[in-house]
Prior knowledge:
Blueprint: E1 2-3, E2 15-19, E3 25-27, E4 31-37, E5 51-57, E6 60-62, E7 70-76, E8 79-87, E9 90-94, E10 99-102, E11 107-111, E12 116-122, H1 124-129, E13 131-141, E14 152-156, E15 162-165, E16 171-177, E17 179-180, E18 183-184, E19 193-201, E20 205-209, E21 215-222, E22 225-227, E23 230-232, E24 237-240, E25 246-251, E26 255-263, E27 271-273, E28 276-278, H2 281-292
Antiparallel strand pairs: 1-2, 2-24, 3-4, 4-5, 5-13, 6-13, 7-12, 8-11, 8-13, 9-10, 9-12, 11-14, 15-16, 16-19, 17-18, 19-26, 20-25, 21-24, 21-26, 22-23, 22-25, 27-28
Amino acid sequence: MLKINRIKNMSQKKIDFICPPGASHWVGDGFLMTNFIPYQKGLSMRDMDPFILLDYGTKIYVKPGGEPKGVGVHPHRGFETVTIAYHGEAEHHDSKGNHSIIKKGDVQWMTAGSGVLHKEYHSKDLAVNGGAFQMVQLWVNLPAKDKMASPTYQALTNAALTKVTLPDGSGVIEVIAGDYKGANGPAKTFSTVNVMNVKLGKNGKADFSLPASQNTALMAVEGDFLINGVKLPEKNLLKFSHIGTDFTVEGKSETSTLLIISGEPLNEPIASYGPFVMNTEAQIQEAIRDMQTGKFGYLPD
């Protein structure tokens, strides 16, 4: 993990560190993931509150003619899952009757709240025809007062995302949640979060300003970048400290995609056990009992 101390002025965000990818692992039999939050040093659930998980999906190539692969039925309670599709397609089903196919450029924002069962697989078209597959999944913690909110599902197509074209035409900012220079993203959230994709051509630049109070990280999904003049290689994550507000992103590859996540910390107790994230151990035990007694609903395999 590389520590960075370079800072030019008091308004410029100070880089805390750059974290290279660790070993990849399979989630189910369809998603090859590298975890950054919460298992890397300096990227715990508290370090990146309210973001309690970031799994980077290594790009894989699905062979044509197979059966859809993925993750079978499993529960969640107490937070939101955000799946961002960069290549390929995934199909979603949950115990509240929601069903959608997340295509390239789309976003799935699922509020597990009081409890939901869901499953995700490669789409049937991807399994039949093959092709590239890559996604990033975030978990966003819910405030204590909203942890038992009714489960909801936001299927955000790429066309629905707010897009800001850079003045020189060198790229575009896709705002999923929060805002970029007054352009608001479509995702409805329970706390103050900013989630956006920065898509740049070579030497394309974009400038940002985010409050020093927020926990802010940048994930180089594809391509290399310069962040305030510091190199951020592909598949690496950069975390800012709580000093400064402004930063500049410059693409150094022919095409590049950067994920920005930034949010005001909830500063509430965290109790977690697998797919449950609550505030106390007693609430974790209650979640397990409720799931076992069918209160999360029913979803066939």
